[in-house]
Design a protein that fits this description.
The protein is α/β, with parallel strands linked by helices and about 500 residues long. It contains 24 helices and seven strands. It folds into three domains: about 160 residues, no CATH class; about 180 residues, Rossmann fold (3-Layer(aba) Sandwich); about 120 residues, Orthogonal Bundle (Arc Repressor Mutant, subunit A), CATH 1.10.10.10. It is flat. The structure holds adenosine-5'-triphosphate (ATP) and magnesium ion.
Amino acid sequence: MCGLHTDNPLEVQIKLIRKYLKLKIMADNVSFRGHEQERNHVYDLFKRTVSHGESHSALMIGPRGSGKTTLINSVLHQIGQEVDLSNDAIIVRLNGLIHHDDKIALKSITAQMQLENAVGDRVFGTFAENLAFLLSCLQSGADRRCKSMLFVLEEFDMFCHSGRTQTLLYNLFDITHSQQAPMCVLGITNRIDVMELLEKRVKSRFSHRHLFIFPNEYDPQRAPQYKYQDLLVQLLSMPVKPKTATKKKRSRRNTVTSEDIEMEAKIAGDSHTLPQPILSRINLDQLNQDFVTDWNNHIASLREDHKVIDCLEKLCYYTVNEQVFRNVLFELVSKLSADSPYIEVSNLSTIIDKTVAPEHRVKLLQSLSILELSLVIAMKHGMEIFDGQPMNFEMVLHRYTKFANSNSSTQTVPRPVILKAFEHLQELEIIMPVKTTDSIYNSGDTTASRVQKEFKLYTLAVPNEDISDAVKNFKALPTEINHWFNNSVV
Ligand SMILES: Nc1ncnc2c1ncn2[C@@H]1O[C@H](COP(=O)(O)OP(=O)(O)OP(=O)(O)O)[C@@H](O)[C@H]1O
Ligand SMILES: [Mg+2]
């Protein structure tokens, strides 16, 4: 046994483990856990569009890092294995942050449909004409059947922010609504109030199918840190060959190959090994099984470590974004070396502390204008007085005006400017709209969506300590504001 270790020096083993785990943590964007109902729903919509030529639209809503994109990838991967996706369908992926105006979006749609040559120098009168032309190009075959189209619109809310007409959405939803072509339009967003952003004409053509992805859904009884604890062990474990298979192969060689791992995964019923295309990026020939067993025991022992749970609890307090958690693990794995071949809990703790450090949030608050910061303070006071109840613009304005009036030195600001400042706070995600029971679940009733923006309810999305830090170190902050912050009486 000892001989094996000298054949494969520690350095080589650690390097392989590091590389494999990095791939496991970051590169696998297809394996999806949980949310079965929502996944089946998306699968169903896509499959029916591709196989039966139906038309559908839907919105998927969930916080950042809850796995929305991964869900879509895993569904497309599965359908790709069942039908010939590249021949039967066209997948168009748009992102509201990238395709921030309709012209750019249309250009990208044309490119993704591979119709740049067909369009050539043609000039179109309207957006709808252009889209109709693209669709007509796709009709082929004797029955002039159109290929099915799957539109995935990431950052969907950015397609309907103010200052942008919703022509693209209108046209896409119109096609699904009137069943002009087999098309599925799926919007993905983390804005719970997204329906309120849609124009009436767009809304009336949308199917009102909502899918919610809640990050901690599959075991609401357990605190999220226990989910992370499982995930930590799962993501940091290396694949092991079952004993019987190991012996057989070992007579020939002492090493594990990627095929062995795949076979082992099938035998063990382990769904957590990497998909083949990613596995092929790493050559595990030199990986030693005994070393892997040691490693896995070491990782399993982390599960029992109370300090690990404490660290994860701290992380969960700030965010349940799995991407952030994976970034932490990635950094942790990167620190492995022959000199420190094991996961150090102290490292985990340092990385988590660094990740949740309030610096960037405090910096963001310090970059606000005095007026914007005043609104944050007004909101903080208001929420303190009313036991954390959300507030609307009018309530914040009321508190702010009261303060401004009691201070002759504070400049009076016109109401539209204050409203603009308030909206900016929302764009920066310093304040967040709250889910009102009547807005989404009751989307048939349009009265809720007609709530004027001044009366929409918001809550503060930054911790009080951060506001306090920001105020303390704010450059050239008028003393009366500082005083106001420290005395909530006014
Ligand atoms: N249910 C899940 N199954 C597997 N992986 C997941 C799951 N949820 C999150 N992840 C992992 O967390 C990371 C973030 O997920 P993803 O990018 O899909 O989130 P998202 O909801 O699309 O976030 P955003 O709103 O920022 O786009 C990915 O690395 C993904 O592998
Ligand atoms: Mg995403």
